[in-house]
């Protein structure tokens, strides 16, 4: 490895560090969190509206059942009233009993009609709420769409930077022997991102420990093309 190749290896490491930072930035973009918030807000409106729709259906079914019952009572009221005034019944006691029944049915119809009106009002109220939430849902949908747009714009900017760094890294790496690159990559995974360190004043700048006089001597006399490793941390050393 020539000095130039060592410089390139350090440069590869700088680019890799930068790429890691950019990937981290990509994962933690504020636009991503903002979009998640908007999606959550939309879900909330959606759930509210769905619950109200279920309620509306329930109220409509109850109202229908009530109206059917009312129709049956009205029928019976009409029938009994017709019988009362038909002239077919002549017995006083029988007439009185029938009159009481007709009165009872009339009052029951009237009560049931008021109930039906109340129920209708309730249905209308829930319908109005469902409609109002539709507007809220549409606006929440629009928020999600624009949030997605913001995220993809922010992602595109970071991805372009990653591409640039990757291209620059590839150029630097082209001249480095494959065996050294493989060793570098293996070390980089194991050493928390720093695989190559300068050796300055007898100290490894990767682990900041001084090398033994024996090792320094050995490194000093090692052939230029021999890759040396720090005896403390195992990183590739760049002789300066
Ligand atoms: Zn070291």
Short key terms for the protein model shown above:
240 residues, mainly alpha, Helix Hairpins, 5 helices, binds zinc ion
Domains counted in the coordinates: how many? 2
Radius of gyration, in Å, reads: 42 Å
Largest sheet: 3 strands, mixed
Query: What is the topology, as strand order, of the major beta sheet?
Result: 2-1-3
**Which regions have little confidence, pLDDT < 50, spanning 5+ residues?**
none
Gross morphology is rod-shaped
Structure, explained:
77% of the residues lie in helices and 5% in strands. It is mainly alpha-helical and 240 residues long. The protein folds into two domains: 19-171, Orthogonal Bundle (Helix Hairpins); 178-239, no CATH class. The two termini are 13 Å apart. 11% of the residues are buried. The mean pLDDT is 96. The structure holds zinc ion. Residues 197, 204, 206-207, 209, 230, 232-233, 235 line the site of zinc ion (ZN).
Write a concise synopsis of the structure shown.
This protein has 240 residues and is mainly α.
SSE map:
Layout: H1 3-27, H2 30-84, H3 92-173, H4 178-190, E1 196-200, E2 203-204, H5 213-221, E3 236-239
Parallel strand pairs: 1-3
Antiparallel strand pairs: 1-2
Helix pairs in contact: 1-3, 2-3
The chain binds zinc ion.
Zinc ion binds next to loops.
């Amino acid at each position: 490895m020539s000095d130039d190749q060592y410089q390139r290896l350090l440069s590869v490491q700088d680019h890799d560090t930068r790429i890691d930072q950019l990937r981290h930035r990509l994962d933690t973009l504020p636009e991503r969190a903002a979009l998640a918030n908007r999606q959550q807000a939309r879900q909330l409106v959606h759930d509210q509206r769905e619950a109200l729709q279920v309620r509306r259906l329930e109220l409509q079914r109850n109202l229908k059942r009530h109206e059917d019952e009312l129709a049956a009572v009205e029928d019976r009221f009409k029938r009994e009233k017709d019988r009362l005034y038909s002239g077919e019944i002549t017995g006083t006691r029988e007439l009185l009993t029938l009159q009481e029944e007709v009165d009872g049915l009339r009052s029951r119809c009237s009560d049931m009609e008021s109930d039906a009106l109340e129920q209708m009002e309730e249905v209308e109220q829930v319908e109005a709420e469902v409609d109002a939430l539709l507007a809220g849902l549409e606006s929440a949908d629009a928020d999600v769409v624009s949030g997605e747009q913001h995220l993809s714009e922010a992602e595109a900017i970071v991805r372009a930077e990653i591409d640039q760094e990757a291209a620059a890294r590839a150029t630097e790496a082209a001249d480095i022997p494959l065996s050294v690159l493989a060793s570098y990559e293996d070390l980089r995974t194991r050493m928390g991102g720093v695989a190559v360190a300068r050796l300055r004043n007898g100290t490894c700048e990767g682990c900041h420990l001084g090398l033994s006089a024996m090792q320094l001597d050995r490194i000093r006399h090692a052939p230029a093309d021999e890759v040396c490793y720090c005896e403390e941390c195992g990183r590739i050393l760049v002789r300066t």
